[in-house]
Design goal:
281 residues; WW domain-containing protein; 6 helices; WW_dom_sf; WW_dom
Length: 281
């Protein structure tokens, strides 16, 4: 039986819910029209009519066993031809999906950094899709598992493409500059590999500041000790005053203090023979 018997037009009446009018819908092509399509008498009968009509009418006229067997296999061949027709359409859509996915992968590989985890993953996906494309060149059948895998890969590629589309399309100079920076960094010697360049600059600047501050520490040590000694004496004087509630501390005003040298002058404190700031290191 010729494959031209495969139906290509099946129209059904459908009611439009908004206008409550009847329109016609082609269940195979998805075409819709308000006019009643004129069926061409030369067109073959649809598959449903072919099976139902011929089975009920023609088979009643068959009396010989051989004729019945022949009719049975003719029906099987018709179903086989229809399945081939539908499968060929599915294979065509799968091929188009693979081609779109490969084009998207090429875009991702152009912007991905070589020898990275993402780059290697894109290469594996490209190898898988290329193998399936070559297989479908000479075969018209594919397993459901492989088909689901192709769809998952296509969706993953689309998600990655949406990510890179968020960036400006004129950012090629930025990517090129980054690649140059990475190549230059590979050639530069690194004294401390565990530190970033910014951290190394901080370390070097801190070392320079430490050497400068070491001299300042020695120079300011005596003045710091002197200030501590004066604050100590100021605190001891406040403690020794009789009425604490009348004490008024004015931090901005300075007053000369005599050093406490005897226990009679201040029995609450340990006598200090020499001030701290006059001691030599």
């Amino acid at each position: 039986m010729d494959k031209s018997d495969v139906p290509n037009r099946i129209w059904k009446e459908v009611i439009d819910p908004s206008s409550r009018s009847v329109y016609y819908w082609n269940v195979l092509t998805g075409e819709t029209t308000w006019q009643n399509p004129v069926q061409d008498d030369t067109d073959p009968l649809p598959l449903i009519e072919k099976i139902s009509h011929d089975s009920k009418v023609v088979i009643d006229k068959l009396t010989h066993k051989v004729d019945r067997i022949k009719f049975f296999f003719d029906e099987i061949n018709l179903i086989h031809d229809v399945c081939d027709y539908l499968r060929s359409e599915d294979i065509g859509s799968i091929k188009e999906l693979i081609e779109r996915s490969l084009d998207g992968l090429n875009q991702l590989l152009d912007v991905a950094t070589p020898k990275t985890k993402s780059f290697n993953k894109f290469l594996e996906l490209k190898k898988f899709l290329t193998e399936q494309r070559n297989y479908l060149k000479n075969n018209f059948d594919i397993s459901d598992e492989v088909y689901d895998r192709i769809k998952d890969v296509s969706e993953e590629i689309e998600r990655n493409l949406e990510t890179i589309k968020r960036f400006d399309v004129n950012n090629d100079h930025l990517l090129d500059g980054y690649k140059v920076y990475m190549e230059k960094r590979k050639l530069e010697p690194v004294d401390q590999p565990n530190l970033l360049e910014s951290d190394q600059e901080k370390v070097s600047s801190s070392r320079n500041s430490d050497t400068k501050d070491s001299n300042n520490v020695k120079h300011n040590k005596k003045s710091i000790l002197k200030s501590i000694h004066e604050r100590w004496n100021r605190a001891s004087e406040i403690i020794d005053e009789g009425e604490l509630e009348d004490v008024r501390v004015e931090p901005k005003k300075t007053k000369g203090f005599s050093f406490i040298n005897t226990e009679d002058d201040n029995p609450n404190l340990v006598p200090i023979s020499n001030p701290w700031y006059e001691k030599e290191d």
